[in-house]
Amino acid sequence: MIEVRDLSKRYGNTLAVDDLTFTVRPGVVTGFLGPNGSGKSTTIRLILGLDAPAAGDASVNGKQYRDHPAPLHEVGALLEARSVHPGRSAYNHLLALAQTHGISRRRVDDLIDLVGLQSVAHKRAGEFSLGMGQRLGIASALLGDPSTLILDEPVNGLDPEGIHWIRNLLKGLAAEGRTVFVSSHLMSEMALTAEQVIVIGRGRLITDIRVDEFVRQASGKVVHVRSPQAEKLRALLSRPGVGVNVDGDPSLLEVTGLTAAEVGDAANEAGIALHELTPQQASLEEAFMTLTREEVEYKTPA
Amino acid sequence: MSTSATTSAPGLPHTGRLTQMRIFRSEWTKLRSVRSTRWAFLTAVVFTIGIATLACAVVSHHWDQVSPQDRADFHPLDPNLAGLQLAQLALGVLGVLVITAEYSTGMIRASMTAVPRRLPVLWGKVVVYGLVTLALMLPATLIAFAIGEWIFSGRHIGVSFSDPGVARAVIGAALYVTVVGLFGLGLGAIVRNTAGGIASFAGLMFVLPPLMNVFPASWNDAASPYLPLAAGEAVMATTPANHLSPWVGLALFAGYAAAAIAIAAVLLVRRDT
Predict the structure, then answer these.
(1) Pick the CATH number of A220-280 from 1.10.3430, 1.20.58, 3.30.70, 1.25.40
(2) CA-atom Rg of chain A in angstroms
């Protein structure tokens, strides 16, 4: 269980985390979603006590992280930034972390097997690929058999097989009753793994919602309309809050902000013939982008 | 690798809680498992023994040509301790690296996540690095002394370990280079950056003394013995000069190192990682 209350963090003039409040519950995978630069990594650093908040607090399993007598048994963390000395072997890296808590060498060996690094365990970590580095990071997160896992962009750099492995691992950990908190900037990834998503943008909470509810809300927002009088229909529908796009085919309109029924009724009243009227399933990625559009800090000029 | 693994591995009895003793063990693992440690310690030991041997052999070989004046100024410990000039550089730089490498590689985030109270990691590094340095450098200085005296014995110009000040200088030399390493560690922990750490270490130790020459001679003479290098080296002094007394000098130098570590400790708790 992770509880974040009124959390804020400022770097210079930038408010990286802005009065954030949410709770991450055990037993399900919770996604932590937001565009790059939205404050996900900062929030995770604040939860782990690596950075001090400007205001508010974060607790894990009822206590501030630093107040736990055996932190690695409470929380396992994978940080986005690399946190391994490249000159040290994977085995010695894990051993040094394990020794702080009196965790056995046997456990270190078990985890190297679990993440599939047996053949390179005694190689310098600097020679690892991005994917192998992620596996080492996941091994260190699981070292203390923690009841809470916090993983920042764990699928980064993994091949499809590795991504599949991570998804199953996370779901399995949640099914064991653990709290699993996973950040990502890809909604599609979260839709496959998470049951709950916490979405932030520019350090602020946008929504805290079940994934199936998010999918339901995301669909049916776009309507495709085909008409021989497309130009006339376009003029008729255009008003504030409604978007009408023409993409290539001049007889096909892509309408946002109106339901299929509203478009059909309006055409009927104006005596405009319709040849097609189709509500579209917006992709999750589109829905996510719509949701966070206002909050994206580094927007690509359209 | 099995893609069917869906659990976190076999269950683990939660024996753990953080203890300073366990953190010492962890820091020992960190120290011994990177190459820079081996190279720096090897350099320090080889220079300490090798340069002592070389310098003593050269002096012994040319003793017949040495003028009576130079013979009077000569102290057999001087060539014996010559190698420490290089050893201290290697140990000071390694001291800086012991902490700054954690920052440059990001390892510090893993370390501070495992030990979120942070300070035990610093104490762990200070104790482990200090003890390992002393454990290597004390035998190294004793071996260098034994070899030098064996070379000098043919010329009857040697000294005995029991002669006044000899044991103090030889053992003090090992203590001195250990403090040099800890001074580097403290500065590295303040600066958190390898280049900056080495620059501040070299600056305070080796650049500050000649800079004192810009001041009037009377100021220079008054202040110079209190600078880190001069204070620390007083413990190895063989001739009375403009020095603090040996143990006072070493204690002052240890005080500088302790001050650097104390400042680092305060900053470690306050700063974001």
Answers:
(1) 3.30.70
(2) 24
